[in-house]
Prior knowledge:
Residues 1-28 form the signal peptide. By secondary structure, the protein is mostly helical.
Amino acid sequence: xxxxxxxxxxxxxxxxxxxxxxxxxxxxxxxxxxxxxxxxxxxxxxxxxxxxxxxxxxxxxxxxxxxxxxxxxxxxxxxxxxxxxxxxxxx
Length: 91
């Protein structure tokens, strides 16, 4: 396994752990719409966190599969995931 694979796997696991912790700590009356799991996605940080988890999972799977060029994934990463991550951290 390459360093790139290890990085994407570690980042994916960190995102999944954070998503799990968030779902356990913020629930019920603490949600924007009480007792509605999907209401947590009104926050841009949660949307970004779940998208980052999906991105790193796909990147990990592509890095261990040996696929060197995937233009659809690269386009998705550069046009949506990257700018959303930067915007979330700036705001």
